[in-house]
Design brief:
- The protein is mainly beta and 662 residues long.
- Helix content is 1%, strand content 41%.
- It has 1 helix and 52 strands.
- A 4-stranded antiparallel β-sheet has the order 1-52-51-50, with no helix packed on it.
- A hairpin with a 5-residue loop joins strand 46 and strand 47.
- It is elongated and about 85 Å long.
- The termini are close together.
- About 4% of the residues have low confidence.
Length: 662
């Protein structure tokens, strides 16, 4: 099939890894950063699907290092470096890796045995001879001498400090230390100690509105003859607070704000622009005074308040505030959906709004990040803060754009209005009584379909949309129930997916029966091996025989089974295709909806997005694919006859985008 491979949601496609690095993507989260004087950025995070929990970006924003093996963190809240080594937290342990400054390769492997420190480390800072460790468990700062090989001398010095967090070194070797109690609303403070642990008496106090997440010291003296302490604030201000601490005695009374106060919610709410931060997790500064900011959209990386990953952003700014570059890793177990109201030009996932320029043909160039749709401050009860809404369908009801979302394993449906205030989507007041099925689907008119074997019924149910109320919320009529048709009608029949095309009045179903039973390795979220089409479903009140039946291939020994499908049709019903995507090995099988005949198979170009690799234990590190949700694919037919397909690719924090003209 003559298909063009592209992607959205990540600054890098995933291919062409430099020596020693098997993947090239911005991780799906960044919990902290450290920036050295040359402008190299070291990142750490709690979790990245492909194991890129630590990474190094050069001053130009190129990814130059990551783990040489896969590993997942229990926490990843600290990282630092000196001229010889990188020190980072992984799973409550501190590891050291070589950090060559004059060529050579990094080694950030996590499979090494043992560790240098084992405790709840929330901050690290290093000189060439000393490593400072923020031991949050025991309320102390540990001071280790560093041996020539990077190991730490035994019996470290220490001094007590309540709830120590981030650390940063001043030009005189003194320590600026974040002190913050998770269980207190009284606010955090930054205290000042010399390198031997003597309290210098300087304190920067914050009230409870400030959520202090990162600290750095600008020792470049490009902006001031004094050191500047930079604080990343993930509270209401969503900015960087900069304090001049030269000749400081006591507490400073003022600060300069770097970034728009209010962040992404300033000016036009949700609109993406330089200096409009969202979910700050860290700050760094290089020897030229350039400022680096890491963000994750608002997820509290320390307290994990909401449990969702909103994606990662890493930005570099000149001292005067000009953006030098931005690196994005926005997708994790998410599948974005096309807006049918503007020919697929706008695309939404649960939290992000993208604009697609279909005139661009260079892979990865179609998309731009234009909006962040969640406002956790104005709408703290937004269900996206508490429920894993990972699949998004975009629908138009009376011309209004409505987002429907469900979770990684479906079972519920949430509804959002868009463009209510800037680019913010808000919970609709509609309370749709989902039955808890894996098969749940909003059709083009906003009607909702469900099917499966969940209680209280084993029927196919349809709830028609009746439009919008005066506040723009979808409204619904009485639910209709239909008996399950053959080949799912017997006691052995199980329906796991449903999709309805309103234009052709066709219901598409997928599932199992005794002839093709559900294998043990495939969980309840598996779609089934049987795919059927029922034209004229509503016109005939569900009394329809399948027009055709497809029996898909599956290989449970190799994680090679269907996971999700999507149908796109020509408006007059004379052309259309069913796109069936697979779980482990990445491929999309394409079938005609006219007669169910096989058309071909779509596979991603590995020279653009990396290979699809499989092991006996599941999707391999560095491989594309890993479709891990019931609705991981969305297909759309544009008015010019081009079919465009978005496919979940959570392994390297993006959605694959395919373009095909039959």
């Amino acid at each position: 099939m003559n298909v063009e491979t592209s992607w959205i949601g990540n600054s890098f496609g995933g291919a062409n890894a430099p020596s020693g690095l098997y993947q090239v993507h911005v991780p799906d989260d960044i919990d902290t950063i450290y920036v050295d004087s040359a402008g190299n950025v070291y990142t750490n995070t709690t979790y990245d699907e492909a194991g890129e929990t630590q990474a190094v970006f050069d001053p130009n924003g190129n990814l130059v290092a990551g783990p040489s093996d896969q590993g997942y963190n229990e926490n990843g809240y600290a990282i630092t470096a000196n001229d010889n080594f990188i020190y980072y937290v992984n799973g409550g342990k501190v590891f050291a890796s070589a950090a060559p400054k004059a060529g050579g390769s990094y080694d950030l492997a996590q499979s090494r045995s043992g560790s240098l420190v084992q405790t709840d480390v929330r901050g690290l800072a290093a000189t060439d001879g000393t490593l400072y460790v923020s031991d949050n468990t025991n309320g102390q700062i540990l001071i280790y001498s560093i041996n020539q090989d990077g190991t730490l001398a035994s019996n470290p010095a220490s001094f007590s400090l309540s709830y120590p967090r981030g650390l940063a070194l001043g030009s005189d070797g003194s320590l600026w230390i974040v002190e913050a109690n998770d269980n207190s609303s009284s606010g955090a403070q930054v205290v000042h100690y010399d390198g031997s642990g003597n309290n210098l008496g300087d304190v920067i106090n914050f009230d409870g509105s400030v959520a202090l997440t990162g600290i750095a010291v600008d020792t470049s003296h490009m902006q001031s003859p004094d050191d500047l302490v930079l604080i990343s604030d993930n509270g209401q201000d969503q900015d960087i607070k900069i304090y001049d601490v030269g000749n400081l005695t006591g507490s400073p009374t003022g600060y300069n704000s770097f970034g728009n106060v209010g962040g992404v919610y300033s000016n036009t709410k949700g609109q993406i622009a330089a200096l409009k931060f969202k979910g700050l997790t860290g700050v760094g500064v290089d020897g030229s005074g350039n400022i680096y900011v890491s963000q994750n959209g608002g997820r509290d990386s320390v307290n994990n308040l909401d449990g969702n990953a909103f994606g990662a952003e890493l930005e570099k700014y000149s001292p005067s505030g000009n953006q030098q570059w931005s690196r994005l890793g926005l997708e994790f177990v998410t599948r974005a959906g096309f807006d049918p109201g503007d020919d697929g030009q706008d695309v939404y996932d649960t939290w992000h709004h993208f604009n697609l320029n279909w005139q661009n043909n260079t892979p990865g160039s179609e998309w731009s990040y234009t909006g962040f749709t969640l406002d956790r401050f104005e709408f703290p009860s937004d269900s996206r803060l508490s429920a894993p809404n990972y699949t998004t369908w975009v629908r138009r009801i009376n011309g209004n754009r409505i987002l429907f979302t469900t979770g990684q394993y479906a079972g519920y449906l949430n509804i959002y209005k868009t463009n209510v205030d800037g680019d913010i989507a808000t919970d609709s007041s509609t309370s749709y009584p989902a039955q808890g099925y894996y098969a749940i689907y909003p059709d083009a008119n906003g009607g909702i379909w469900e099917a499966g074997t969940a209680q209280p019924s084993e029927y196919i149910i349809y709830t028609p949309s009746t439009g919008l109320d005066g506040n723009g919320n979808p409204t619904y009529g009485s639910t209709q129930s239909f008996n399950r048709p053959a080949p799912f009608s017997g006691s052995d029949g199980i329906i796991r997916r449903a999709q309805y095309d309103a234009g052709s009045d066709t219901l598409y179903l997928a599932g199992w029966n005794s002839s093709y039973p559900q294998p043990g390795p495939i969980g309840d979220d598996g779609p089934g091996q049987i795919y059927t089409a029922y034209p004229g479903w509503l016109a005939n009140n569900g009394n329809v025989s399948p027009a055709w039946t497809i029996i898909s291939e599956q290989d449970t020994s190799n994680y090679d089974w269907p996971e999700s499908f999507s149908v796109a049709e020509k408006p007059d019903g004379t052309e259309g295709y069913l796109f069936l995507t697979f779980s482990g090995i990445h491929k999309i099988q394409v079938f005609s909806v006219i007669d169910g005949s096989a058309v071909g198979t779509i596979t991603a170009d590995p020279s653009l997005v990396g290979p699809s690799i499989q092991t006996s234990e599941g999707p391999s590190s560095g491989a594309i694919g890993n479709v891990d949700m019931p609705y991981g694919i969305d297909a759309f037919r544009r008015s010019n006859g081009e079919y465009v397909i978005l496919n979940e690719e959570d392994n390297q924090a993006k959605n694959l985008l395919f373009r095909w003209v039959p």
